[in-house]
Write a sequence for this structure.
C-alpha cells in the first residue's frame, strides 16, 4: 500500500496517530473539489457545495452508524469539544469526571470553561500497569460523587495509545444519570465504530487521522435529546436562519462564515478508498503487527507494559514507557540521525515513545526503530521506565 501515500520515502513514518496521511486518490479528489470552489466560488459555497456537504454527512453517518441529523462536520476535534465545553450547562460546584490520560489540549479546554462556570474538572487517577478492564473501571469510578454531572473520556488515548472501555463507561454513566462526552479522535478508521450502539450523548472524532481524509475534517455527534443546549461556537447565518431547515442543530453548526470546506466533502472518497481496499482486514493485520512488535519490545527491554498487550487495549498504536532528561533531544535524534518520525510524549510525569503501525509500514520499519532505540539507550538518551 505504500505507493498510495505521498509520504517522504526517506522517512520511516511511525506517527500516523498524530495527523494521519491522505492517500493519493483521496488527495486528488480533494484538490478537484478545491478547484471547483475557486472556479465558481458563489455557486459552490451557496449551492453545489452545500449539496455535497449533505451527501458527505450522510455517507459519514452511515459509516459511523448514527443518525445523520445528529452529526455535523467540523474542522477538528478541538473545535468540536470547545463547542460542547462552552455550551454544557454546568453550575458552580458541578464536576466533570475524566482521567489523567486525556489529551492536553482537551484538559486545557475543560479547565478553562469549568473555571468560567465554577465547576470542577476532576481527574481519576488510572494506575499503571492497568491489570484489566475491571481494574480500569474501578480506578475511573473512584472519582465519582454526587457532584459529578458529566463524564469526559477518550475512546483511544493520545499519549498512551490505549483503547479505553467506553461502552462500559457509557452504560454505567447512563445508569447514574450522567451526560457522556467521548473524545474519539483516534477511533474512526482504527476501530469498528457504531455510535448508535455505543449510546454516548456526545461523540467527537477525526476523519483526517485513521480515516485518512484531508486535514481539517472531523465531526461532532450530539444525541437529539441533548442538542437544545449546544450553541454554535461561531454565530452566523444559521442562527435564526431566514431559510431554516428541518434541523436547528444543523443550521447552527454547519454555517460558520466563509471557509474552504473541501476537506469535509472529501470524506466519502476516504470511505470509498477503505471499502475498495478491504480496510477492515488490513486494519486487523496492522493491529496484529502492533501487538507482535509491542511484545518484542517488551521482551527485549523487560519492562511492564502499561496495559495488557491484547486487542482489548491495543489497536494500531503502542506506547513504550521511558525516562529521559530531554524529550526534544531524543525526538530530534530519532528524526535527524535515523530518519524516523515517531512521537515522544509526556503525560503528567510519565514519558512514552509511541509507535503507530499503518498499512504502509513493515517489519523493516519497526526494526529500524528497535535498532535506533537500542543505540540511543546505550548513548544515554533515555532508559526504560518500570512501574512499582
Amino acid at each position: 500500500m505504500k505507493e498510495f501515500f505521498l509520504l517522504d520515502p526517506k522517512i520511516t513514518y511511525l506517527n500516523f496517530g498524530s495527523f494521519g496521511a491522505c492517500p493519493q486518490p483521496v488527495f486528488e479528489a480533494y484538490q478537484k473539489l478545491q478547484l471547483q470552489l475557486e472556479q465558481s466560488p458563489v455557486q459552490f459555497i451557496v449551492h453545489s457545495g452545500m449539496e455535497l456537504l449533505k451527501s458527505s454527512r450522510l455517507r459519514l453517518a452511515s459509516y459511523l452508524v448514527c443518525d445523520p441529523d445528529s452529526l455535523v462536520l467540523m474542522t477538528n476535534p478541538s473545535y468540536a469539544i470547545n463547542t460542547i465545553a462552552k455550551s454544557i450547562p454546568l453550575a458552580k460546584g458541578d464536576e466533570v469526571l475524566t482521567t489523567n490520560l486525556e489529551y492536553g489540549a482537551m484538559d486545557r479546554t475543560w479547565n478553562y470553561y469549568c473555571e468560567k462556570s465554577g465547576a470542577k474538572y476532576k481527574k481519576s487517577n488510572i494506575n499503571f500497569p492497568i491489570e484489566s478492564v475491571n481494574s480500569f473501571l474501578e480506578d475511573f469510578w473512584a472519582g465519582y460523587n454526587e457532584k459529578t454531572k458529566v463524564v469526559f473520556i477518550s475512546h483511544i488515548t493520545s499519549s498512551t495509545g490505549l483503547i479505553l472501555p467506553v461502552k462500559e463507561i457509557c452504560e454505567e454513566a447512563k445508569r447514574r444519570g450522567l451526560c457522556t462526552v467521548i473524545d474519539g479522535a483516534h477511533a474512526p478508521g482504527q476501530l469498528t465504530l457504531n455510535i448508535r450502539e455505543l449510546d454516548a450523548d456526545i461523540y467527537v472524532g477525526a476523519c483526517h487521522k485513521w480515516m485518512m481524509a484531508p486535514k481539517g475534517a472531523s465531526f461532532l455527534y450530539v444525541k437529539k435529546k441533548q442538542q437544545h443546549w449546544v450553541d454554535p461556537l461561531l454565530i452566523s447565518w444559521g442562527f435564526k436562519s431566514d431559510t431554516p431547515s428541518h434541523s436547528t442543530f444543523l443550521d447552527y453548526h454547519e454555517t460558520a462564515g466563509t471557509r474552504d470546506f473541501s476537506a469535509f466533502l472529501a470524506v466519502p472518497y476516504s470511505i470509498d478508498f477503505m471499502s475498495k481496499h478491504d480496510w477492515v482486514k488490513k486494519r486487523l493485520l496492522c493491529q496484529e503487527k502492533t501487538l507482535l512488535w509491542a511484545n518484542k519490545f517488551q521482551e527485549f527491554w523487560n519492562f511492564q507494559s502499561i496495559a495488557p498487550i491484547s486487542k482489548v487495549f491495543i489497536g494500531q498504536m503502542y506506547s513504550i514507557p521511558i525516562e529521559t532528561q530531554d524529550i526534544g533531544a531524543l525526538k530530534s535524534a530519532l528524526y535527524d540521525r535515523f530518519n524516523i518520525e515517531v512521537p515522544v510524549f509526556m503525560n503528567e510525569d510519565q514519558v512514552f515513545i509511541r509507535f503507530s503501525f499503518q498499512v504502509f509500514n513493515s517489519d523493516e520499519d519497526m526494526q529500524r526503530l528497535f535498532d535506533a532505540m537500542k543505540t540511543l539507550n546505550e548513548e544515554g538518551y533515555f532508559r526504560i521506565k518500570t512501574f512499582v
Summary: The domain at 26-274 is CATH 3.40.640.10 (Aspartate Aminotransferase; domain 2). The chain has a mean pLDDT of 96.
